[in-house]
Every structure is written in C-alpha cells, then in structure tokens.
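Review box. Two proteins, two foldings.
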Amino acid sequence: MNLSDAIAKVFPESERSAAAEAIDAYDGNERARVQVAILALAGGDMQHLRELVRAAELDYRDVLYWAEYPEESKSMPRDEAAARYRALGMPLPPALEDRPRHGKHGKGKPG
C-alpha cells in the first residue's frame, strides 16, 4: 500500500490533496515511517495532521514514540493505535504486533 492509498482511506475526497501536500512537507529522518505514523495518529483530522508534521520537523522521534508506543506515551490505547495502522492498510510496526500474554507467574507459566 502506498501513502496516497492510505490517505484515501482516512480523509474525505475533498481533503485528500491537502493531506497529501501536508504529509509530503515532512522531509526528515525515516521519512516513510514517520509519514505513516503521522497518518495513523491524525486519524483523518487535517488540523491534527498539520500539527503532527510540525512536531516531526522538530523531533521525528516524538511522533514515532506516540504512534508506535502509545501506552508508554499515553497517546492512546495500544489496540486503537494498531487499528489505525490497519485502517490505513499499512503493516503494523513491530512494537504494535500482537505479543503473547504471559501469566502472572512469569514467562510461559500459566497464571
């Protein structure tokens, strides 16, 4: 899936061109990864998308932290973040992939 397809999944047709232009403005480190993170975090909100692009320009690692470690960053529940990546048709970042649940007694032991 490419970025244009992902934009089309979450933005109405009337905002797609502006969303593509805004997201294309980010030209920093890990560009593709950060752009997808911005789309996932924006959730189809144009104003939020622009704010996230500005945040990425200041420090792209903040955007990656909010998107890929949502529970730690308190940006949103982990399941919601994963659902947003899925809604974009993009692969989940490794930190959001399903991880095995372990019992309270430790790794691999029933709880």
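Next protein.
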Amino acid sequence: MAKAEFPSLVALLFKHGFFALEENYFKPITCCASVITTVVGSGYRKVVDNYAQAGPPRLQLLEKAIDRAAERIEWTKISDTEFRSAVGRSLGW
C-alpha cells in the first residue's frame, strides 16, 4: 500500500460511518470468528468487534477494504535493535 493511498482509506472510514458504529456486534452462536477493527489517530481510538459477521454490511465492506490495503503493504525486515529503537522513539523512551 502506497502512502498516497492511505488518505482514501481514511476517507472510506468516514464515508461509511465507522466512528458511529457500535463497539460490539454478535450472534448468539458459538465457534465463530471475530474480526476486531481498531483505528487510532491523534487523540482518538475506536474499536469494533464483529463476531460471526453480525455487523452491518458497511462494517464488512470496511473490513474487506482494510484487508485489501494490508495485502499491498511492502514489509521490510529490520533487526531487533532497529525494532527496539523504533518502539522506544514512538513511546518516548
């Protein structure tokens, strides 16, 4: 996923009302998958748990869009030292 594509993914979240969704969707059945979608930004955090695909169609559309974007991410292997340094910087260490 190119950096330039990220704003369109964020726009999709707003267009389909991700931030107005309930926190939990479930069906009263057992042994089903749960998809937990978390969006974190400057000063906010929204988590939606979609158990057994009980959420509305717009939630499933967003889940698929995020999955498609994640498939296009080009991961770069880094050393343990680089990882610890990056985590430390993000946590203010």
